[in-house]
Amino acid sequence: MPDMNILMGVGNTLRNDDGAGIYLAENFSKNGWISLVCGTTPENFTGIVRRENTKILVIVDAADMGLSPGEFRIIPEDMIEYTGFDTHIMDLKNLINFLRDITKEIILVGIQPKDIDFGECISPEVMTGIKLLTKALYTDPHNIQKTRI
């Protein structure tokens, strides 16, 4: 079975910009890639990551990084903290620790939200960031590594 790349869109579409990863995953399509709309339970999709012999796993989630809304960055693994509880069932640090043994490379991308209040709208600034991130992923997922936090 050939290696596949997987995009996991993580977030909560009921909290406005927290749905950025979901929106990106819903609209991402590229040969050699599987796009997974994971919502708040990315751990439910780990079987697919294992089964597909994943080469590169890109996880996209809204993250408050103190940037301008819509800006995105690679989040180095050592900067991810155990939160115990966040908007997801399993925190991303535990998820990445679990996935490390079943995929060759993991890239976590945070996109700065503007508004995570209850609602179902993605702000124009975050939508622009999603489009730029999508373009970078279509070109080469390693291109976005130039913009680390």
Automatic annotation (TrEMBL):
Name of protein: Hydrogenase maturation peptidase HycI
EC number: 3.4.23.51
Domain of life: Archaea
GO terms of biological process kind: protein processing
Uppermost EC category: hydrolase
Pfam families: HycI
InterPro entries: Pept_A31_hyd_mat_HycI (IPR004420), Pept_HybD-like_dom_sf (IPR023430), Peptidase_A31 (IPR000671)
Signal peptide location: none
Family the entry assigns: Belongs to the peptidase A31 family.
Keywords for this protein: Aspartyl protease, Hydrolase, Protease
Coiled-coil regions, chain positions: none
One function term, GO molecular function aspect: enzyme activator activity
